[in-house]
Design goal:
Helices cover about 20% and strands about 40% of the residues. The protein is of the alpha+beta class and about 140 residues long. A 5-stranded antiparallel beta sheet has the order 6-3-2-1-7.
Amino acid sequence: MSLGIGAHANLILEDDKTVMYEYGSYNLNETEYRPRNNIYDGLITISRDCFAEPEIHEKLKRVPSGRKKLIIKRIPVDVNYTQMISEGKIIVENCSNCWRVSTENNVDIMALRILFVLFRQYQVDGKLPESAGYDA
């Protein structure tokens, strides 16, 4: 069963030092925070050095034909994005549909969910995601 909340972000700027995403969120449980024509008025600015590389595990595995094959796995690592927000490496401008903020740093909780998805997709795919979404 769905909680009726979610957010979506799109990449709008990328250079050598920073990455910028626009984002918008919704809450179907409250009429004032329902989606209105996909408004993306929130902004997430991330320093390039915040994107952590995953752990790479390599092992030789014997296949049924008797040959050995190199298997490479990308294991995502946890990124402490709340600490990066307090250090100023990540700057979040809350969107107009923000209904709840984090007690630590007054950041939209849906922006925090989007940050988790962005960092995880980067580690899995090896490149910056063009868009990211979270629906619960």
